[in-house]
Please model this.
Amino acid sequence: MRRREFVTLLSGAAAAWPLVARAQQTEQVRRIGVLLFNAENDPLGQSDIATFQQALQELGWTKGRNVTIDYRWGAGDPESYRAYASELVALAPDVLFGAGPTARALQQATRMVPIVFAGLNDPVGGGVVASLARPGGNITGFAGTENSTNGKLAEFLKEISPRVTRAAVIRDPTGPAGQGNLGAIQAAAVSMRMEVRPVDARDAGEIERGLASLAREPNGGLIVPVSAQAILHRELIVKLAALHQLPAVYGNRFFVAEGGLASYGPLYIDPFRRAAGYVDRILRGEKPADLPVQAPTKYETVLNLKTAKALGIEVPTSILVRADEVIE
Model:
């Protein structure tokens, strides 16, 4: 090879080195640890993860090519949340993702690894972030329902069933958001002269006893804000509401899809899709402290007319005209 040809070849190869290096950096395999509060066989949890993974893929992160995702399923057990959080941190992930109350367990397990959450109720009141605009620390994400929204559930119940004078509220006693939800509902119920009593949801037996007690008196109703415990026991809650003939309003549509009367609340799946965007930004170099916690932006009203008929309720036109979905 002549010297001029060799120099030309060498120069071309040197110019290509940065491109090769960038390509290798782009294809570096990153690691995401995911902690769910559901049981692994819960279709809702599987749907959440499918949405999260699809959104990641649309942003250029493909399992087996440039990202590894480790999943752990807490099945509603706070002790499991803590154990799995430590397990995931030990895998040295680039970022952690937690659904609902599992975010607190992840934060307790590490103050170094970036964390993104979805569907965590009252992250400020629970001490997870300093503020929505400036979360601080290593954690940020997408909040669940706001307390003001839960207050509207009391109004919704009275509107759909004016005879209700007493209402049970399914409360998750395992975190601070449960008390906040109850307080918002009690404040809204005062003007409607509606008595509100909490039913804790630590386990199925507690829910069964609480609703059976309410059903012994007339004009009862049920309010179910979205929480991890309510989600885990959703089939039982809907079944008991039907058994005791209790008009019930819920904080999300999947309760209504499974036979509940009506719901008002944010799109449950939306935070999982949006959270993938924050995970992407962190993997590309941004810090959680610089990403504001975002509140829900999309809400929907859903009715189940078959359930209304079974309860002898004639749904007011005012509700029908504003419903986003009517299940018949």
The domain at 29-143+268-297 is CATH 3.40.50.2300 (Rossmann fold). The chain is about 45% helix and 20% strand. The radius of gyration is 24 Å. The chain has two domains: 29-143+268-297, 147-267+300-327.
